Amino acid sequence: MVLPVPPHPRRLAERGFDASALLAIHVARALGAKYRPGVITRARDTPPQASLARAQRARNVTGCFAIRSSLDAQRVLVVDDVRTTGATMFEMARTADDAGASSIALFALAAADPEDRAT
Prior knowledge:
Structural class: alpha/beta
Number of strands: 5
CATH topology: Rossmann fold
Strand order of the largest sheet: 1-4-5
Oligomer: single chain
Number of domains: 1
Shape: globular
Strand content: 15-25%
Largest sheet: 3 strands, parallel
CATH architecture: 3-Layer(aba) Sandwich
Distance between the termini: 35 Å
Number of helices: 4
Radius of gyration: 14 Å
CATH class: Alpha Beta
């Protein structure tokens, strides 16, 4: 199954679209996999990762996702639009593992330029 990295509802309202979800729909279709938004949700609003120093990013997203249904024995692909340090995707993977996923792969369409990262 394909799981998009969910935005917090406040951030989704600000943007008006969910880039990870839009990408994940197409990835799931191309793979012939189930698209399952909402299995993992963002339970806590966090500051944008791009605004934080590298060392702060993992702490920022720790515990920010919540499991809404079991992933028992499911193969999961986590999809995000942009990866900077990978902290958000790894926290999604940890949450999927806690939900019982049998295997977890990570996919991001783009990687942020290291020169643009906060230090």
